[in-house]
Amino acid sequence: MTIIDSPAIKKRSSVSIIMFTVILTLIPALLIQIGFFGYQILGNLFFGISFALILESICLYLQKKPIKLFLNDFSAFLTAWLLVISMPSTSPWWLIAIGIFFSIVVAKHAYGGLGSNPFNPAMIGYAVLLISFPKLMTSWPESNSINLNNFLEISTIIVSQPFNYVADAVASATPLDAIKTTLFLGNTIDKNITSFNSSSYQLISVFYLLGGFYLIFKKVISWHLPISFIGGVFVFSMILFLIDPTNFMNPIFHIINGATLLGAFYIITDPVSSPTTIKGKIIFGILVGLITVIVRNFGGYPDGVAFAVIFMNICVPLIEKFSQPKVFGYE
Amino acid sequence: MIASILILLGITLIIGITLGYASIKFKTEGDPIVDKIDKILPQTQCGQCGFPGCKPYAKAISNGEADINQCPPGGDEGIHKLAELLGVEYKPLNAEHGEPKPKSIAIIDEETCIGCTLCIQACPVDAILGAAKQMHTIIEKECTGCELCLPPCPVDCIDMQVIPETTDNWKWKYPIFKINQKNKHAN
Amino acid sequence: MQIKDEIYKFFGGIKPNGHKNISTLNPIKKISIPKKLIIPVRQHVGKMPNIIVSEGEYVLKGQLIAEPVTNVSAATHASSSGKVISIKKEDIPHPSGLPDMAVTIETDGKDKWIELEKFQTSKLSIETLLEKMRFSGIVGLGGATFPTHIKLNINKINTLIVNAAECEPFITCDDMAMQEKTDDFLLGIKEVMNLIKIPQAVIGIEENKPLAIEKLSKSIADDNSISLKVIPTVYPSGDEKRLIYLITGIKIAKEKRPAEYGIQVFNVATLISIARFFNHGEPVISRIVTVTGNVKKPNNYEALIGTPINELLRDAGGDTNKEIIMGGPMMGFKLPSTNIAVTKAMNCLLTITDEMENKPSYEMPCIRCTKCVDVCPAQLQPQELYWHAKSSQFEKLTNDYKLFDCIECGCCSYVCPSNIPLVQYYRYAKSEIREQKQSLDIADIARERNDFRLLRIDREKRERAERNAQRRSQVSEDDKKKLIDEKKAAIEAALNRTKEQNL
Question: Do B187 and A1 touch (CB under 8 A)?
């Protein structure tokens, strides 16, 4: 008598549909990235995702859970994708492997599997790599325009680098990194941002924004987290910019560059590690924005989204406890 | 060096005096921990723990004479609650004191009862109605299922009956599910 | 209180496919009298009524076969004339599958009515009328089966809200009743309004019933005290507190009753049976049942209480081997067997369709997507309730997360992407919490009785000791000597007697 079945009808939705929709919206940005930098990113993706699925199968087997069922929801797929696009496309395969290992095995399965991870898995992997291999993780390739030949040259699918890889003239810094080094050297910032070769990454960020709007439109994610995060970054960087325009960049720069737009729509909206109440989401987004701005301007790393997200993930239970909405009739 | 010893001694003295004063001034009457333990115990008054009732067992636990895993009617849940209250480790039920049984109530076979009142004196909650040479009967609502009335009866006319599940006391069970065998798309 | 014209919108709710038009094509069909009527004795919320007939007795249609015991209890009547062949435990429609007492009547086909008492409602007092209603068997026929005479025993009601929403998919019995029994329906509203002096009534009806809306608006066109409000088709707008909010804008919490705000809510079928009782003296002996789902000819049937459901299914062309749900697809439960009969709570028999059979049933872990929060009409946090219920941590559920405000509508389980049976967890948690509270109450009583017993034994001991001490102290030294001398003399006399006898 305990075999249950109420209610008898069900709306057609599942975890795999949600994850699959998110992956679909990432594809346009991926195509733009291939156009600028070549097929290497695709090779990284292929390797990263297969490695992630293999690790996930091993973990599920050890936990005695049905493998096919859990692989079919695309959560490991999505985690691997987000981690690979956060890393430079010239990363060697072993770097990707270490990152994926920390994301899938340590940050997700060691805590109990799908739905039990307190931290964003992709960001844990990224943070581990950033702290352990800072040089490799901050040497991003550079490109000025979309080269259609990039779509034809499949020879650059996987580039394996030796262990003593040294940055050469091809690799350059991201705009955020360049700002930090300029300030470190004691110079003030030139307001002219077109001196940075950053149009490629800015265009990719815009496509993340478009993908995010599509997700909000389809109600896969709610608008509270992205808008409060972008708003938080805008407001706090605006405050700093108004105080001292020579040492801080303007807010639009902070939004377009770095991982702000990718983070707003794809990273902090990971449902398992973000708050569940509406007020909680707004507080979470604003605080992540604040910490990002602080780390970018006063911290040791060029981009603070990853650390801000991980730090706020710790505070999520506390935020939820104090932002519970009122029940019907008790207002 | 002398100065530091004297300073530490002085601080210790001050703290000691404060604590002593507080223990006298803020002393509480009675022993609230015994009442808290008694509230958790199921009040069956069966004596399976080795003490004559639930209140003596609660006193013994607070004195440290008894362990928390001696009460079968309280079951595992009761032990968990006691462990949480007292801040000690959970231990499984001590089998020496009995096994948990389904809730039952006693019933007297009226053909055999001789009216000796021995069971009335034994019942810890006065759930048996009767007088000398009159028919005895058990008040269903008050019976806790402690079984203390079974040994004294000279004609062995008392039985324990498990309370059956009716629509009045039925409750929903923990949901379990089976993987639909013929359903391939389980997403 | 003024009824404003605007329709409020409550938070949450879902819009599933209604499937209503398949069962409204034909009018209500009357099922012929079956050979056997299996009438469960308790078909309402409250105490089991007293059975007053015995086996072998001949009963007439409408005869009282079980009378109510205390206040929260209702009567049960024979649905047709015939002989009582058995009074024992039979299968009843209950989610547990446990049996309950039922009276089985073998009908003789004559369908002879008992002599009904006709009375003038205007000439009798409210107390007399409510006392008569207590024996009428009228309970809430929307599915809750709460005895109606208790709901009417309240004064200072200024709005009567008629629950004509029928929000659950597939169910259409109220819709057809409003179309075909409009006069009885409006008469019922008027009777209730006159009985406890309610100045105004509002009929809340969903917009997916155009024919009923048209018929009703024509009939109440010249009556100013009854108004019609058309509400959007959202599940669960038929829940009592949601309907009150839709029509009046007042939000009522779990602990309070609508009567405290001057509002009372009744179902369509209940009002129709009130009209039949007050004007013709007829007790509740039949109801309209929608038979739909995977059947060849879905239809609404007017069936006698106690009709075996196999007759209804056979007429509708259903397959008795398939599983059947009693009630709607959202809140109904699977019937444990098909050997049961129509009761007052049975508003729909739904045969499982292929869409329901192919519903995925493996529970995946919760990913905190909060789709359930977006649809909960009680504005609860279903995922918090789920985690606490799943790990059996019951302390925070009642006060912090307000588990008992959950109306078990099923909206959260409907949208969950991980296929978690949320409502089952809440039902389990509510049962456990209720049982724990009951155990605590019983334990408190046992503790009191034990304490009193120890006190009594102590007191008896003390009194006995006191009495002994008193007796011993009362006697002085001389008296003691006298007593000893008297005892010696008595012993000597006895010895002398025996000596004489021996000689």
Answer: no
Secondary structure of C448-500 as H, E, C letters? HHHHHHHHHHHHHHHHHHHHHHHHHHHCCHHHHHHHHHHHHHHHHHHHHHHHH
Q: What is the pLDDT of residue A169?
A: 38
Give C358's contacts in chain B (Cβ within 8 Å).
183
- Which residues in B have their CB inside 8 Å of a CB on C? 38, 41-45, 53-55, 124-127, 142, 144, 165-167, 170-175, 177-180, 183, 185-187
| pLDDT of the residue at C126 | 86
- Residue B180's pLDDT is 44
C417–A17 CB contact, under 8 Å: yes
Is the Cβ–Cβ distance between C23 and C326 less than 8 Å? no
Cβ atoms of A65 and A237 within 8 Å: the answer is no
The pLDDT tens digits for C200-240 are 999 999 999 999 999 999 998 888 889 999 999 999 999 99
The verdict on a CB contact (< 8 Å) between A7 and C373 is no
User: Which candidate from A5, A115, A328 shows the least CB-CB separation from C368?
Assistant: A115
The pLDDT > 90 percentage for chain B reads 11
Q: Which domains does chain B have, with CATH numbers?
A: 32-97 (1.10.15.40), 102-165 (3.30.70.20)
**Rounded to the nearest 5°, which phi and psi values hold at B77?**
-60, -45
| Chain A contact set for C415 (CB, 8 A) | 11, 13
Cα distance between residue C471 and residue A65, in whole Å: 82
d(CA C347, CA C311): 16
What does the buried/exposed string (b/e) look like for A115-125 if buried means 16 or more CB atoms within 10 Å of the residue's CB? bebebbbbbbb
- Write out chain B residues lying below 8 Å of A21, CB-based: none
Give chains near C: 3+ CB pairs under 8 A: A, B
Closest Cβ opposite residue A16 in set B175, B176, B187: B187
> Which tokens go with C235?
């599940």
pLDDT digits (tens, 9 = 90+) for A110-121: 998 888 899 999
Pairing state of beta strands C159-164 and B158-162? Answer: unpaired
> Mutation test of the interface with chain B: which of C43, C98, C356, C438, choosing the one with the most B Cβ atoms within 10 A?
C98
How far away is chain B from the Cα of A75, in angstroms, using its nearest Cα? 13
Percent of chain C at pLDDT > 90 equals 48
Pick B170's closest partner by Cβ from C98, C421, C452: C98
pLDDT at A198: 60
Q: Please list every residue in chain A whose beta carbon sits closer than 8 Å to the beta carbon of residue C423.
A: 6-7
pLDDT above 70: residue B66? yes
Between C99 and C5, residue with greater pLDDT = C99
What is the spatial distance between Cα B100 and Cα C71, in angstroms, rounded to a whole number? 39
Of residues C432, C430, C422, C323, the one with CA closest to residue C371: C422
Shortest Cα distance, chain C CAs vs residue A225, angstroms: 13
Mean residue pLDDT of chain B comes to 84
Chains A and B form CB pairs within 8 A to the count of 19
> Which amino acid is residue C371, in one-letter code?
K
Looking up tokens 């492997």, which residue turns up?
A: A97
pLDDT exceeds cutoff 90 at A81: yes
3-state secondary structure chain B: CHHHHHHHHHHHHHHHHHHHHHHHHCCCCCCHHHHHHHHHCCCCCCCCCCCCCHHHHHHHHHHCCCCCCCCCCCHHHHHHHHHHHHCCCCCCCCHHHCCCCCCEEEEECCCCCCCCCHHHHHCCCCCEECCCCCCCEECHHHCCCCCCCCCCCCCCCEEEEECCCCCCCCCCCCCECCCCCCCCCCC
CA distance B66 to A135: 64
Residue C377 to residue C198: CA distance in whole angstroms: 29
pLDDT of residue B185 exceeding 50: no
Output the pLDDT for position A122: 93
